Amino acid sequence: MKLTLEIWRQEDAASKGAMQTYEIDEVSEDMSFLEMLDVLNEQLNSQGDEPIAFDSDCREGICGMCGLMINGEAHGPEVTTTCQLHMRSFKDGDTITIEPWRASAFPVMKDLCVDRGSLDRMIQQGGYISVNTGSAPEAHSVPVPRDHAVRAFTAAACISCGACVAACPNGSAQLFVGAKITHLGELPQGQPERDQRVVDMVAQHDHEGFGGCTNIGQCTAACPKEIPLDVISQLNKDLRTALRHGL
Amino acid sequence: MTDMPDTTLTSHPSHDAPADGSDDAMGYYTPGEPLVDRKAPDGPIDERWNTRKFEARLVNPANRRKLSVIIVGTGLAGGSAAATLGEAGYRVKSFCYQDSPRRAHSVAAQGGINAAKNYKEDGDSVHRLFFDTVKGGDYRSRESNVYRLAEVSTSIIDQCVAQGVPFAREYGGLLDNRSFGGVQVSRTFYARGQTGQQLLIGAYQAMERQVHAGTVEEFTRHEMLELVVVDGRARGIIARNMVTGSVETHLADVVVIASGGYGNVFYLSTNAMGSNTTATWRAYRKGAYMANPCYTQIHPTCIPVSGSHQSKLTLMSESLRNDGRIWVPKNQADCTKDPRDIAEKDRDYYLERIYPAFGNLVPRDIASRAAKYVCDEGRGVGPEVEGARRGVYLDFADAMDRLGEPAIREKYGNLFDMYARITGENPYDVPMRIYPAVHYVMGGLWVDYDLQSTIPGLFVTGEANFSDHGANRLGASALMQGLADGYFVLPHTIRDYLSDGPFEVVPEDHPAVVESLAAVEERIRHFMTAKGTRSVDSYHRELGNIMWEYCGMERSEDGLKKAIDLIRTLKDDFYRNVRVLGHDQSLNQSLEKAGRVADFIELGELMCIDALNRRESCGGHFRTESSTEDGEALRHDDLYAYVAAWEFTGDEEPPVLHKEDLVYTAIEMKQRSYK
């Protein structure tokens, strides 16, 4: 198939960017979206034009490195990561717009690459259980009810891609924070630090410039791992509880 | 069965290696002194690790903050080490090329992690895990290291559970286990099909906690491009900030490389796009020996290549072989037909035919090689790519008749969905297509029992080292090794080295630092000014084709010699004709790839030399000159029961081969048979 691509080009963080138009031919429906961009980059390289910078690593939907706004949707039209989106979701003659994640907490570094360090910095504020190596008790000493383990896993499946933020009109990362709060809060091991965790992570969330949640739900709709919206309710509940405890 | 095509696995002549030991690689290398690991204590195998931990000197807690550690890589091996050394109070600098430590490719491991907990009371033990791992590695690993791996495996599970890793659990709230990779006990812990992700998040969170505590400083989007060796000790790295393009010097008392494997030397593999050999290869060029580089693992159940645009391959859990039947058409003419229209009598269930005892469950290397043979004969299925159809059917029709579709959906639903997403075909209706792909490398930098390389002060952990998996890795053992090294082994062994520190401060204008920095800048300058015509990717793809063809599942003397010539020609052309656009002082992905491909090309040559030297079929690899009368792999313990450790001596000089003899005291060497 033949496609017209409107792609965001930006030299670096300090420069102003703009959309540019590219034509690409002989796109096979078996290509992944990123392989289509690889082909475009080979084309650009042979013409002497600098290839388009975009992030990806595992290309199997689990590392969270890739992420593009495709026709205005985070990761494009399917519920999956950009790397797992295939060209059979498009048709001959389509025009596709491709932009980087749009959020003030994710500054653009070049073309389609953004800086998501803010997500790591939120984890640094308590998105963990404090247990030094070697000090752990026997694994079977604390049984975990299966439904708690399942809910913890569902929340822990977050890949930190940032699609929730990019999809949110407020640029909120509450689905991301809620997922971590739920993952660790469902487990007995996560209880001792539960109150402090939510207070500190939320403070960092606001400090990074993420917006507030207004229950629109675009985050969960865009999430390639289908993290449920109720992790945000859990976040709010845990925050209320922590504040009542005087934190 | 009279209309069976004349195909068996004996399509290649069988030769035994000459009794005096052949020297296929003569002229490609220089024989060197034998190599011995002096760090593993003597004595009974189950006491060696305790002895070493006791003998390894301690570092006073107050001194630890004066000692600095550089760790390259943030996967299971690097992230766990950064967290643990940070907790101990050392000053850690952690580097990764991704934008976050949590993206390292350990994240993609699906299956699980082994541990000798014996929660199922099914006869498992440390000794049995040790035994299975050595046997799985086809008796080419070092027994002291493997025993220690099995020993610490149980602590890994305790640690991960305490961190909040949500392993699968039973209704009573206790941990669930499954049997994995053909072993007879259930010792594999798992978190759905995302075990690697969950373990990595555990290590990552532990590391981020230390970032918060101020003991670990993280450098994301930084790539190590050179090792700095001062007065014979590893003292730092040269790294490029991949966002600004600035080339930085980072110095420390000790350097740890945990940068993963080099499977991308094949271009197409299940590795991440950025997985590379540069950290390990640069260390090799600075004097660290590279051990058994030709040992690669090829996984039989991957989704086949769909076109020349293919950028990577996707693995599907080999548990699929429990219920799927593998076949190809008997007649080439049927290869383009809809498989559902091919009559039962026209199908060749070749694994069931050749290996009636194990059928579709033969080990990975045998299943992989058999698929290659039937496709080489022209009986492959699926799209034609570059003149060949490379795929075989994995058919669930019988299983669906027997168990019903809901049962299959329950067991394999996520894998079927993944397959459908990638191929656009519905595997509930049409048989899946699979083909082998490079998945893991057992070879890597040589390390002693302390995980220290031949350069003092350079430690190597996880897939980047060679030590624990021999010639083939057992399923669910990669995650175990990465975490064993980082959480429980390295922190003890590195303290023995660090107890001599802090070492004399290295000034940034030290000649060794200046030289390393200049070498990196010169390499970058070369790529930016080469002004050639071919893209980096085109060279990478060509290298991959050579490696896959001649140094993949099956190797021969002639093929490997041809590959070495082709690689040398490719290298020459690459340096003259590569085109890298853009600027070096900015984010430049072509430049990043150029450096990696340059190192892959050199590594590819060494892999071929190593494979040429090893005239035996062993573990994951098969030499056509070394097979039994019925075409099966034939190992030569009399000639090759050693680790081949290669020393770099200069670009124009052949590498020097040092042999470390493998001695087994706790286990007897045996030949495999699956007929």
Automatic annotation (TrEMBL), chain A:
Its cofactor is [4Fe-4S] cluster; [3Fe-4S] cluster; [2Fe-2S] cluster. It is an enzyme of class 1 (oxidoreductase). GO terms for molecular function: 2 iron, 2 sulfur cluster binding; 3 iron, 4 sulfur cluster binding; 4 iron, 4 sulfur cluster binding; electron transfer activity; metal ion binding; succinate dehydrogenase (quinone) activity. Keywords: 2Fe-2S, 3Fe-4S, 4Fe-4S, Iron, Iron-sulfur, Metal-binding, Oxidoreductase, Tricarboxylic acid cycle. Residues 1-102 form the 2Fe-2S ferredoxin-type domain. Its EC number is 1.3.5.1. Signal peptide: none annotated. Binds 1 [4Fe-4S] cluster. This is Fumarate reductase iron-sulfur subunit. It comes from uncultured Nocardioides sp.
